[in-house]
Amino acid sequence: MVGFNSNDFTILIVDDVPKNIQVLGSILRPLGYNVEFATNGKQAIQWVKEHTFDLVLLDIMMPEISGFEVCEEIRKIEAYRDIPVIFLTAKTDSESVVRGFELGAQDYVTKPFEANELLARVKTQLQLKHSKTLLGETNKWLEKEVALRTTELMAAKKELEELDQVKTEFLNLLNHELRTPLNGILGSLSILQGFELPDEIGQFLQMLDVSAKRLERFSYKALDISAIRAKGKDALFLKKNDFVNILQEVQAELSESAKNKSISINVVCFQDSIPISADKVKIQNTITYIVENAIRFSDPGSVVHVISRVGNQQMNCSVKDQGAGFSEYALRQLFKPFSNTRDHVDANAGLSLYYAKLVVDAHGGTISVDRNQPRGSMINITLPLFG
Description:
The protein is of the alpha/beta class. It is 54% helix and 18% strand.
């Protein structure tokens, strides 16, 4: 056994017959065991109170105090509750053996002693004691390590909470610092576009307007993504909303861009009203981005179908386009930021489905992408119903 060395163990022999002590010593000492002895029960009890032993060989039949009584007294000492005790007895009746085990003995050896049997029983008990000691030390080490790691994790958790607070404050500041100048720019552009200006100036203002609106949309999208990643569901402003109304607003918002590409948006709702518990702005943005992508990827003259219904205690919505569809690679990458689809060099497009997944997941819903047979793609969304 690794780590087991007989020289490390001290054995106390307790017997009122000197000859027995001599025989036991002659068997144990040559193997390296340290041996001490006591010739009566009182002396044995005094020895164990003053010294540390790894095993006790204890004769049962002794005058004044029997081995049974000595064993009882030894077990009352805290340090000796688990120290192995082997009874030495000339008796082989089962009653004495059973009583010895009941008093806490681990084994027994009958007289006259057979050297190999004695050594085997002693070694077995010492090996068990050695293993228990190692296990106890390992457990103490593990407890210390767990306590240390727990302290470190608590400190890391506190630091993360502080960083999260800083991040939240930064996002709020960034939100204000981005939106305020963008609102000023867009407002100024709107006023300028109301004047009669030379064509070149008008085209220039139109380019500025498109770029500013693109930056505005990207900043809002990025800020929402950061907030949801930091807070999860806590970043949502949940209340009862009608999903049918949301679809109608999305259709109205995108009607001009669809018309410019000769694409029709066909909205079909199988219920007049579909109540959901949602952050309206984020869910409407989600549907808008998905339908925008469908328009972007569709061929002119095609139709984008938006179909919603209630089933299985949830709202189900599918957005189907008739474009070229996504490749196998693109299907695996769609919900990653800046996914590498054919048109996703555009940062807004690259974040759209990533944004959609974060929002839908935060609402406790699901989002998936399938092929729309025979041509195109289909994005499916489920959201919990209100109540």
